[in-house]
Hints:
Blueprint: H1 9-16, E1 23-27, E2 39-41, H2 51-58, E3 64-70, H3 71-76, H4 79-91, E4 95-99, H5 101-106, E5 113-116, E6 126-130
Parallel strand pairs: 1-5, 2-5, 3-4
Antiparallel strand pairs: 1-6, 3-6
Amino acid sequence: MLKHGLLNSNVLELLGRFRHTNTIVIADRGFPSWPQVPTIDLSLTDDIPTVEQVLQAILPVCTIGTAFMAREFKTSNPTKIVRFTEQQLRAHDIHLRYEKHLDFKKRIPACIGLIRTADTIPYRNIILESA
Length: 131
């Protein structure tokens, strides 16, 4: 029996398939459904869990090279939230690339999985690319 760390069997299964240059999405609660991308729905109630909480659970067990986010994240949220996200990624040597929201969404069909959270922060979605 697992005693600590990631406990969700669906997330563990997804991460077991997350290999070099594969991408996964951690999405906020309003992110659209993508029928061709397997989705793990972790949402319980407002902000439980958040994208940040899921990211923090995943980072210790994966090697991430690049993260992609919509530019709108920077313009739709307080500087404090944006800086916190950027600092968390830098602390794990993850390169962050901002792009137009429509370009961001074009990446989704190539992702091997999507984890839906209950995050209420606008444009909080993040695509992680394995190193």
